[in-house]
Amino acid sequence: MEEAGEELGRGNLRQAAEKTWGAAALAVKAYAYWREGKGLASHGELWSYKSVMASELGEWVRDAWGSAVHMHVCFYEGWCDKGDVGRAVKEVRRLVEEVRKKVYSRGL
Prior knowledge:
Elements: H1 2-10, H2 13-36, H3 43-57, H4 60-77, H5 82-106
Helix pairs in contact: 1-2, 2-3, 2-4, 2-5, 3-4, 4-5
């Protein structure tokens, strides 16, 4: 997320977007591994597991995930603007921090 923020600050929206997507994907993978020892390997598995996270952490997870997915599209299509990326960075940062708190509060 730090790199996403730096890229956003430089105006490199595509790189900020992709780093935001990557952070969200890794957060979902980390949560699944921490919670169940389960490795997620596909976009479909990430989408599915996001729902598990939303049921446990709150419905805001769906919004953060949706923003992250939009950032993945932005990387390839370049449609988003600085406001879109900034909002996604904020939402995904919350997701990453909440996962970090869970994982480190009870250990890996």
